[in-house]
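It would be a great kindness if you could assist me with a short task in structural biology. The matter concerns a single protein, recorded as an amino acid sequence and a row of backbone structure tokens. Could you please explain, in whatever detail you think fit, how the structure tokens follow from the sequence? Thank you for your consideration; the sequence and its tokens are set out here:
___
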Amino acid sequence: MSIGFGAHIPFVHELGITLEKFEGGHSELRFAPRPQHCNSFGVAHGGAVMTLLDITLAAAARSVQPESGIITIEMKTSFLRPAPVISGMALTARGHLLHRTRSMAFAEGAVFDAQGNLCATASGTFKYVPRATLPGHEPGPLPTD
């Protein structure tokens, strides 16, 4: 059963990514790529896989401080095998928080195909920030200090 991200993220909604676990420094997300998410080889485009990993790592980091927003500072991705696009089959991404300070988080995660094969891994650094929106207000600029 999918749970909410705690924030409206139009890009995540457009991709159809769902949050399945969000607690204690751990996250699990699902993404069923559609044909428009393919590269010229007919497998999930690397950018789609990286997006899934970015959201997964950020969710793991934010799960210990859900009242905050979080922004990506840097991320490294390694592609180990193609992520197949099969109708009705989802990729699963799992992330976990490695370490955090008052304002920064360090996380890693992986994407698996429907058969459990490891497709890609990533590690990243994230910054906790105040939420970008206030009730009744439009999104504002992200703080950079």
In short: The chain has two helices and six strands. The CA atoms of residues 77 and 122 lie 4 Å apart.
